[in-house]
Design goal:
17 strands, elongated, alpha+beta, single chain
Length: about 350
């Protein structure tokens, strides 16, 4: 670990430092190095004001909250050691539902502060565990309107049929026209409550973020123009995408991303959202509707030479449009419209 620039994790408005340590129990060193998250100690933990903490009949403090069962094992740890350590450090009792039993995690302690610290640390464990999962959903802005699709098909035809063989790209690597979109962020939603929570968070953004922007600007208009690629060598490209021109959408996307991070559904990975429309992706060679292991998909990835595409069509104009919606889209899905299945939809126009 870089001591000068340690790995950090954000929950809400607070920043935490991630340390690596070898857990020791009963004077025996565990074989595997476990990861725990150390709270940033530059200020008092004030998260107790954010939680619903009640006083029980016996005068203790208690909070209960949902965690997907898939993460119970990370909270309990091998032979219960992670939970034991958390209880010892926070002076709180942590009750996790038994395997196969649905319910909330319950934290009880003699003080509100102990309850808040224990819950905060459990949330850190969950965020870390979520970050290791393949993403299941993403916030998307659909771009599958006739004008954009027509220009995309024209672009695809030029690349597939007009370029010399050495620079042409197989049609299977292109995005499906009906699924053209802007990705704002990705997340792993593990159960129905996770999905319902994410849907509500998206709808909350309607009032707190989108409505003020629409009142000021009237609408969210973008222009799709120009090409960029993900890596450093134009002769060996994995992903080619179109750039988005829209300061207003950029501001809205950043705020939505920050809001989802603050709610614990994703870990902060970048300072601002990179607005783009994926046009060609070498992973599209694997079926876009097939759920595959990420490592397996990476092995099947094949780069292509985009130098001539960039030279001839680097400023290709895919058109302008006024945006209508943001979707909470399900990965590896297709709806009756040809676009992704939507778990929730947020409107981007005043009714």
């Amino acid at each position: 670990m870089d001591v000068i620039s340690p790995q950090v994790m954000w929950i809400g408005t607070r920043c935490y430092r991630v340390n690596q340590t070898k857990a020791i129990a009963h004077n025996e060193t565990l074989k595997q190095t476990q990861t725990y998250v150390e709270e940033d100690t530059y200020g008092e933990d004030d998260r107790e004001e954010e939680y619903a903490i009640e006083v029980t009949n016996n005068g203790k403090y208690q909070t209960s909250f949902h965690v997907p069962p898939a993460f119970y094992a990370m909270i309990i740890g091998a032979k219960g050691q992670t939970r034991q350590r958390l209880e010892a450090e926070t002076k709180a009792q942590i009750r996790v539902p038994k395997q196969g039993v649905t319910g909330d995690i319950v934290v009880t302690a003699a003080s509100r502060k102990s309850v808040a610290i224990a819950r905060s640390r459990i949330e850190l464990i969950v965020i870390g565990a979520r970050n290791k999962q393949q993403f299941t959903h993403f916030l998307s802005v659909p771009l599958n309107i006739p004008e954009v699709i027509k220009r995309f098909l024209d672009f695809r035809h030029k690349i597939v049929n007009k370029l010399p063989r050495a620079f042409s790209v197989d049609e299977s690597l292109f995005q499906q026209p009906d699924k053209l979109h802007i990705t704002l962020c990705t997340m792993s939603l593990m159960d129905n409550e996770d999905r319902a929570n994410a849907a509500q968070i998206l709808l909350d953004c309607q009032e707190s973020i989108i409505s003020p922007i629409l009142q000021k600007n009237g609408s969210l208009e973008i222009r799709i123009r120009g090409l960029e690629y993900m890596n450093d060598d134009p002769h060996s490209v994995d992903v080619l995408y179109a750039k988005i021109e829209s300061p207003v959408l950029q501001a809205a996307a950043n705020q939505i991303y920050e809001y989802f991070v603050s709610k614990g559904l994703m870990q902060r990975k970048y300072e601002q959202v990179k607005l783009h429309v994926t046009l060609i992706n070498s992973m599209f060679r694997v079926s876009q509707t097939e759920v595959v292991n990420e490592k397996e998909a990476e092995r099947k990835r094949m780069t292509f030479d985009a130098s001539e595409i960039l030279r001839l069509y680097g400023n290709f104009d895919f058109g302008s449009l006024v945006l209508n919606e943001v979707h909470l889209s399900q990965r590896f899905s297709t709806s009756c419209t040809g676009y992704y299945e939507a778990t929730a939809v947020m409107k981007l126009r005043n009714e």
